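Reopening closed ticket. The problem is back. First fold of the pair:
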Amino acid sequence: MRTSEPASQELHSPLEERHAALGATFTDFAGWQMPLQYSSALAEHRAVREAAGIFDLSHMGEVRLEGTEAVELLNSTFVGDFSRMRVGKAKYTLLCNDQGGIVDDLIVYRICETEFLVVPNAANVGTVVSILVAGAEGLEVEIEDRTTNTALIAVQGPRAQEILLEALRRGTLDEEIPATEEADAVRELRYYAEVPLEIGGVPATVARTGYTGEDGFELFVAWGDATRLWNLLIRVGTPLGLVPAGLGARDSLRLEAAMPLCGHELSPETTPFEVGSGRVVALDKSQDFPGRTALERAALAHPGVVLVGLSADTRRAMRAECEVLSAPALSGGEARHVGVVTSGLFSPTLGHAIALARVEIGVAGVDTSVAVDVRGKLVPATVVPLPFYRRER
């Protein structure tokens, strides 16, 4: 078993100079200096919905597992069952604590029979690596933290496939090369699957995954190849509407698609069954894993609090931590606490305020009216089906 620690505590993307040249405003995210926006978060959001955006996600973790007992390690660490996972596929999963609370949500890719790529959130890389290393004791598996030598670039939006195909066709910045087989691989790549490709001379693991609610791709490349690939994608994608997009747009896009965020919808105090993620918990697998006993109990119980979507006919954003009250509060009646907003904003796509909230099961039904306390003003809101936005297939 072998692990490698990050070579430097200065967490900067290999694309930082490119972002600065494009006029990016930077923000600290889990110790990384990452672009928050370039022109405006609103314009970048709309570009992803209408054409495409390119994101630098190099702050995300990349942890390689290789060995004959890699599946055993995954099954004894995360809530999912990886024994039937096919090569080239991706799986969404969760790491829980002993109480069944969510520590992190992750995507795991099966690169080959004995090799997996685990992608945790930036703030949880150290935690995930430590737990994997402890669980690997005595197993035939090698663990390597590749977070600081792997870059991740995402192209998301209705024209994402067209842009990636154009990058394959153009090949390099100087000449065109045929890429028929590679183009077919992109067209045939299914959602939550990956394929190794070479794009403009850059070897990449290309996954059809994303966090925006749109079609799109996430491209894992070596740290030193990131600038070359970024420049090529910008060059071929700009005429097709591609724009660089920052973490601001990424957050508004994911919220419209009702995708949960660690530290907001997902927390160590929240079980998968309370946030609609019970389906990813494999209680039928033989291996024990953190939180299994608590999750077995939770699976048989009816959660008292669940995650719902709220819609309000206003531009006034319902932000995280806003209190949710029973509907009578709107007319001067009893202002009973029934929940709390976990994420909220004014939706650029829908034109009104939306929010995710954890509420009591008694007010969780679709079309139920509630009140949300937004900076001292009660805003009428209605429970609506999720996601708020669904792309046309």
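Second fold of the pair, where the issue appears:
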Amino acid sequence: MSELFPPVDHQSVKSGHRFKRLRAVPFRVVLPNLVTLLSLCAGLTAVRMGLEGRWEWAVGAVALAAILDGIDGRVARWLKGTSKFGAELDSLADFVNFGVAPVLMLYLWMLQLHPSFGWLAVLAFSMAMALRLARFNVMSEKPLLNWQKDYFTGMPAPAAALNALLPLYINTVIEIPHTGAVALIIAAYVVFIAFMMVSTIPTYSGKTIGARIPRERVIPMSVGFVLIVAALISYPMQILALVSIAYLAYIPFGWHRYNQLARLSTPTVEQESDADMETESEA
């Protein structure tokens, strides 16, 4: 017990070896972390709504978590409040919000009708999400070309979570029969989304959309944005289903465009030999 509560060394205190006072943290650094914690609360609330069978509320909570996840990073950059702690907290919150909550919802809704393969799909999705987030953290330190910043390697975490819930969206439009065969098909779809997360297939990020808006397009884009938000509020499941299908359908076109840009940015053998000859002549 004496090792747990060692006596105070008064000599070290008198000689000036005191505890250093903790420095105050600026609020601009704390604010993005608060947004991240709000997104974590939304993800956990989605699990509760799923346990209660309130599927529209559960989907809304996951969508809210995705919106807050997109906000916290931008807020940190705007306020110049980025920190290593915030990055780690964001990854942990993303794993719960997008790697655990959506597949638990699907398991409670349908996958439990085929418990063996259904639970394997849940595990595969969660493990893929953990690997995806770990790879993203490592690759975020790698310098990229300007055009590469418009693409993710694999499907990003929020998109994977929202696309995994596509069967739940469709169920509100066309009632899906609750059978073991259907559960097996949905489990295979979840495994496909898990594969997309850990794959190296490039997916368009859309980060640069809206960075610069021409003056003549400000009003039309504002009206279109308001209409989209109104449609999302009035028909949330239908709009999410359409967006998810459009996102999945665009992946091959984005992949093709990425390969085109990669070929254009990679110098050919002739260009490299010409460059070597120029450097030799200059020498």
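Update: turned out to be a display glitch only; the data is intact. The CA atoms of residues 151 and 230 lie 29 Å apart. Confidence is low (pLDDT under 50) at residues 269-273, 279-283. Please close again.
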